[in-house]
Design a protein that fits this description.
mainly alpha, 6 helices
Length: 133
């Protein structure tokens, strides 16, 4: 099965090199070239979204790894998956166990969670900034 990026690239190439030149009337010919331009834009969006997903996964993976090294009880740090929903559950468990784990350990975990959230927000802002250019 072809990847989405490769498939869109093949369609763009066909529109520009085969279909566009084969059309003699100016309006349909312009439409073929315009469709190729729009599909190139879509291909870039697909590529950027895929890169952002892997960066998000890396941020979350690093966050859960670091939290696991802090020495928190396993019932607080256990997660079934390492995604945003699991992060939300982790934050809730941290606040629920705040008195039990002590202020210094809570503060260390809270700092790491905040840094991870900032990193995720920065990734979202990068995608938004690229989209508005």
């Amino acid at each position: 099965m072809l990847s989405a990026k490769l498939l869109v690239g093949e369609i763009v190439t066909s529109l520009r090199q085969v279909i566009g030149p084969a059309i003699s009337e100016p309006y349909p010919k312009a439409q073929a070239y315009m469709a190729a331009t729009i599909l190139e834009f879509v291909a870039r969006q697909i590529e950027e979204r895929g890169a952002g997903d892997s960066e998000r996964e890396a941020v979350l993976e690093g966050l859960f790894e670091d939290i696991g090294k802090l020495g928190l009880p396993a019932r607080i740090t256990r997660v079934d998956s390492r995604n945003e929903a699991a992060l939300s559950e982790l934050i809730a468990r941290l606040y629920h166990a705040r008195g039990e784990i002590g202020e210094s350990l809570f503060a260390a975990a809270n700092r790491r969670v905040r840094r991870g959230l900032r990193d995720l927000l920065n990734l979202d802002l990068e995608v938004t900034a690229k989209g508005s250019e």
